[in-house]
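Entry type: protein chain
Record version: 2
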Amino acid sequence: MKVSVSSYSYSALGTSDAERMKLAKEMGFDGIEYAEINPPEGVDKLTHAKNLSTLAKELGIEITNYAIGADFINKDVDTEIERLKKEVDVAEALGVKTMRHDATGGPDGERHSLTGFEKYLPTLAKGCKAVTEYAKTKGIKTSVENHGIYCQQSDRLEALMIAVDDENFGWLVDIGNFMCADQQSLDAVKVGVKYIVCAHVKDFYFIDKSQPKPDGYFDTRDGNHLCGSVLGDGVVPVKECVDVIKSSGYDGWITLEYEGKETPLTGVPKGFTYLKSILND
């Protein structure tokens, strides 16, 4: 299983897309996933994507996935579908075979709601189905990640997989994100691997809601507190989750995503070393 890094992991550095790719190569990664791309001034997105693809070939690194935001509930679904089709074109220019987009961050005022998902499911399925049908013509497989709290728990993601019912559409399984919806990662990963298209590994520190929230932490759905950590230093059972992913037969990219307080210049390599050690077990 080859290892890539999310460009998001370098966000704290304020570097360009090209600089992040070079840094990923220097750190020894086989690939880099782009969580959005940000063209230089005067360069359109499609041209920028083609330039990044050329640079990747020059450096000998692969662009593994393209991940973007989306919301089929708070935006007009048909307008959002058309926008995402253009992002599929960007993914094609990057040279990737997979693209992840969000489904929704939740209706306004309902992001943390435990109810009401069923009434929005047909709209979410409509959006995801239309995008993946277009992506299929480009040879690109689409996915939704357990991300954004409203669409973060495994039963909701599985319901969406079933509703879309398309072999070109699946799940980007992020082993850490389930904690944001107060779900045990290992249990949730066992559901997600049935539909897996891509995999993210990340880790968190956890403090119970009975304790004050420290600086730099954010609240989960139930009010517990999380903060990003170096992979292997937090409470996510990373090795056990990775073992489940490996045992499922998945042989695609596994992507490190880091959002801790430590500089990515040291936090990312530490996580990479840990990930390589458990993949080689």
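Comment: The chain has one domain: 3-279.
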